# Entry
Amino acid sequence: MRYVTQKGTKDILPSEIHNWQIAEQTFADVCHSFGYEEIRIPTFEQTDLFQRGVGDTTDVVTKEMYTFEDKGGRSITLRPEGTAGVVRSYIEKGMSSLPVPVRMFYNITAFRYEKMAKGRFREFHQFGLEAFGAKGPDIDAEIISVVDVFFRKMGLQNIALHINSIGCPNCRGEYTKLLKDYFRPHVASMCEDCQARFEKNPLRMIDCKVDGGKDIVKNAPRLIDYLCDDCKEHFEGLKARLEAIGISYTIDPNIVRGLDYYTRTVFEFVSENVGTQGTICGGGRYDGLVGTMEGPETPGIGFAMGVERLLLEAEAQGVLKEKPSYVKIYIASMSEAAKIEALKICYALRNAGIGCETDMAGRSFKAQMKYAGKQGIPYLAVIGDDELNSGEVKVKNMADGSETPVKLSGIGEFLAGN
# Structure
């Protein structure tokens, strides 16, 4: 039987992992610079957590979750996103007693049974962060600026910020009535999802992806035109802060979230590059979510970013990095005694933090030379009986061919200075 990767999963190979590591470290560094600390949450949770935290009318919950019954008869779900687990931890671990805002970021795998597409997998990776306890527009501008700084550090360009306000439950009450009045004559001609949403979640009809539905949505009333005074003030405050720190934005009334606990600010970062257009990062406020999940009423805001999509964008923009050389020297041996000496030197070098290799495959001396050249290792040293007797070896710079006599005991000091 030939085993293969399952549909919707992929191997991240040694030849490409370095760019994942760069993205992960850059994201962590940027988050730390804003005062966010890392949290690690379980891969699976009780199913009800996601039904509440993601929303039982969303496609994620109704169509895409990996749910199963464990041996104790409990309904368990592999996490489809990160926010619900972080909110559960915030409540369970009593973080509401910490000074606000409580800032956390994460780097997770997540699972959704969805249609395959470029950059979209059933097991995928997300960067995200959540902030709890701050209700004004300052924190909104802060987390948007985290994404902006991260993209700059990654060398990405032409990624536009789109923002919107979806108000609060008070704003949305009257607006939902207007929206249903508008869609009622059209609903029969719209997609099955929108027909189901009409009664349960009409705000999500604004996000229809079917071409015919898009045409109808164009003329729908815009929630941003029906904000209450407090929500207007919050949105104006966000815009003023973004302008003050120099982050340009476009107001996009089609960015929505259909659940009551999502409030006010929603945003997306969208690629404007030909051939890679699409949303790379999305986020927004969820001031009602902690309370919905039986925690203390707490304002919250966060975002999530697909790492596969991010790296596809980096590749398209030509900003992926070449694989670095972790190994600095190859030590070839010409006899059994020389091989033992090479092992001793490599052990000392690795303890000093210097990458090195010596033969592990029983290669001939000629094959060792060929291997070292093929691997692109910067330096080469050959140990034979003469080198063992003299205690000195010639270290060859593979780039220019120059050779430097070095004591066997001084190889580490030589490499540290070159």
The radius of gyration is 28 Å. Residues 8 and 116 are 7 Å apart (CA to CA). The chain has two domains: 17-168+228-316, 329-413.
